[in-house]
């Protein structure tokens, strides 16, 4: 077993807490339905309306397809159509029919014809979830995503995903990123469940060994995000663009929380599959969580987790992002389940109190995606409310086991008030 008894007073034992989470999940899902466009799913503004120039995006479409698949798998009526729409979009207008793989937008509408590992990881996650949900065409989409990962992105030599290519799969980028490999790890856990192929768990472990057990462990368990092609850290990367939404300068504490949770899911999945499972997985998860809390929570004197830190652990971009706090909550509940240690209960409650007080928008719906350093709604990095995925998973995870992955657990009846 990978889990320990919970404290009797834990919110994870409280039916009222799970009812609150379920209600919040329903609210998030209802808001997100407005994102539908003919060619996929697009961005919503603060009030839940499509932007005037809205167009479908692969990232949003994949995340929405995954999220709506979860809703369908757990038995919520009314989402099968939305899953099918996502599969159709990912199989058609968002896919490169000439060279294979996926653009960031239909037929490279945004001018970006490159093929990014980050996006392809989400396509694989969406395809796996849609396959679990039984959506028409999902199995073919899943096979296509696996083929592209195997043929182009996975490097057996390096044990990671390569970052990006030109449209015709030439010119691999001379950059290696922790963010894309983190989401590949998430996708690989789901692929292992859907395909019953344990090579995905072996690949996930190789990623974690390099990114976390080698590089993060050697940097006080603060995740190093940017590397060159030889896996030499690039500490000054994007210093002139520190608030980039995907490759910001310095340390991104939210990823420390997200990695901590994924490492625990990997441990549980490998144990369930009867695979060798290193003891350091749980200790690395605990250290990732501890470092993110120590250096990023209220570091500038106000409650909340800053977006980025420099290499001396000083805040750089002080905005608070909703996804960071969703992942912090999700990591706390995972560590609480795994260890039963009381301080994770304290953090779990602290994060949810902060989200309820500052992020959850009871007037216009969904969550504010960004707060200023003074915890007021802002839009320096992310405008509007385009993302369902992080908040939706955060309200679902407390009622699920650490393994199997989310949609598979829901389809197997794993949604329970006691894990």
UniProtKB/TrEMBL annotation:
The lineage of its organism: Bacteria, Pseudomonadati, Pseudomonadota, Gammaproteobacteria, Pseudomonadales. This is Sugar isomerase. GO terms for molecular function: isomerase activity. SUPFAM superfamilies: Six-hairpin glycosidases (SSF48208). Pfam families: GlcNAc_2-epim (PF07221). Signal peptide: none annotated. InterPro entries: 6-hairpin_glycosidase_sf, 6hp_glycosidase-like_sf, AGE/CE. The keyword Transcription regulation does not apply. The keyword Isomerase applies. GO terms for biological process: carbohydrate metabolic process. Keywords: Isomerase. It comes from the Bacteria. Belongs to the N-acylglucosamine 2-epimerase family.
């Amino acid at each position: 077993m990978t889990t320990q008894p919970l404290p009797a007073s834990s919110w994870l034992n409280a039916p009222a807490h799970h009812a609150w989470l379920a209600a919040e999940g329903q609210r998030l899902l209802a808001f997100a339905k407005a994102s539908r466009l003919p060619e996929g799913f697009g961005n919503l503004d603060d009030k839940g309306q499509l932007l005037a120039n809205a167009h479908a995006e692969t990232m949003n479409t994949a995340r929405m397809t995954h999220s709506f698949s979860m809703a369908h798998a757990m038995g919520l009526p009314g989402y099968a159509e939305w899953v099918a729409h996502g599969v159709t979009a990912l199989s058609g207008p968002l896919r490169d029919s000439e060279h294979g793989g996926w653009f960031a937008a239909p037929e490279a509408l945004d001018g970006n014809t490159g093929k990014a590992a980050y996006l392809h990881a989400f396509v694989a996650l969406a395809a796996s979830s849609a396959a679990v949900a039984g959506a028409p065409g999902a199995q073919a989409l899943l096979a296509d995503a696996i083929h592209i990962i195997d043929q182009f992105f996975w490097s057996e030599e390096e044990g990671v995903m390569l970052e990006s290519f030109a449209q015709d799969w030439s010119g691999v980028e001379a950059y290696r990123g922790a963010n894309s490999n983190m989401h590949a790890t998430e996708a690989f856990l789901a692929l292992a469940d859907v395909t019953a192929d344990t090579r995905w768990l072996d690949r996930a472990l190789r990623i974690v060994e390099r990114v976390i057990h080698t590089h993060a462990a050697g940097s006080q368990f603060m995740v190093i995000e940017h590397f060159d092609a030889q896996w030499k850290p690039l500490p000054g990367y994007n210093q002139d663009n520190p608030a980039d939404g995907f490759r910001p300068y310095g340390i991104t504490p939210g990823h420390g929380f997200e990695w901590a949770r994924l490492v625990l899911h990997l441990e549980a999945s490998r144990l369930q599959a009867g695979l060798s499972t290193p003891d350091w997985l749980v200790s690395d998860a605990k250290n990732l969580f501890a470092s993110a809390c120590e250096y990023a929570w209220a570091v500038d004197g106000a409650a909340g987790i800053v977006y980025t830190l420099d290499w001396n652990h000083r805040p750089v971009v002080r905005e608070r992002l909703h996804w960071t706090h969703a992942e912090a909550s999700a990591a706390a509940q995972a560590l609480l389940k795994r260890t039963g240690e009381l301080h994770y209960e304290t953090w779990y409650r602290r994060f949810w109190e902060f989200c309820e007080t500052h992020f959850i928008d009871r007037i216009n719906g969904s969550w504010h995606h960004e707060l200023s350093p003074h915890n007021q709604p802002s839009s320096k990095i992310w405008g509007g409310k385009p993302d369902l995925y992080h908040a939706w998973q955060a309200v679902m995870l407390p009622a699920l086991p650490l393994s199997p992955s989310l949609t598979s657990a829901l389809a197997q009846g794993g949604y329970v008030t006691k894990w």
